[in-house]
Amino acid sequence: xxxxxxxxxxxxxxxxxxxxxxxKAAAALDVTPGAVSQxxxxxxxxxxxxxxxxxxxxxxxxxxxxxxxxxxGQAADTIVGSLDGLSQMRGEPxxxxxxxxxxxxxxxxxxPVLPVFHRAYPQVKLDIVVExxxxxxxxxxYDAGIGIGEFIDRDMVAVRVTRPFAWIVAAAPxxxxxxxxxxxxxxxxxxxxxxxxxxxLGGIYRWEFERDGQSLTLEPPGTIAVNxxxxxxxxxxxxxxxxxxxxxxxxxxxxxxxxVPVLGDFVPASDALFICFPxxxxxxxxxxxxxxxxxxxxxxxxxxxxx
Length: 307
Hints:
alpha/beta; 14 strands; 3 domains; 307 residues; rod-shaped; D-Maltodextrin-Binding Protein, domain 2; 10 helices; five-stranded mixed sheet; Arc Repressor Mutant, subunit A; 21% strand
């Protein structure tokens, strides 16, 4: 036998208790007085206790009714308030936006975007975790992530927030002066390489190249392996070997000449930084507002000021 719904009759009970009348409760609930009376009788029968004293002129709570009202009334107000809050969230961005951000996106996305977003939506709280790893967003409780397109799961919605950039092999001028420039991908076998270990996978990242339209991946040799791309670039600047990075993340070093690109004829197709999120999350106003702000700030025409 199925268990009775414990909430059956509670709406009618609360309405009668607060309004002091079966007829007024029926009007408030948009049902007939008979329907309210029947619901209360069924609730009383299920509890085995009378909840109201009824006379031809008045309705009042019994001791059991007072007890139930004291427990249920406050809980009902909390539930209604929570539902009203959710209704408001459909329109105005609010709540906490939890982001998992790849370290390389901090300077190139978060720093220019967050001041604009915070000014526009001060009621949205931001909880940002910066990591080198590419974690599972949903199981970890994040609303969205910002990372490199190559590493985003295919079942995620991905919105590009930077202009395309190329992958490069680079080294310090002093290193190239000592060891020479590699002229083909296979030449890295004769060089010291700063190897990158993806934190979430553990294995050494294989360097990717293209030649005559064909993909080529090689495991770089070397005695140094790191799991932080910023550290890899710092070691590269100090002349400890070749490194594999992106022209976006190495832009300052390339402009200053502290890193020099090599093997330019063999770099793979361009990539970009993306905001990614589960399909079911795209309707959240707080997430829509953040995505819109990112694309507006990051992809605006060159020279146009951020809003």
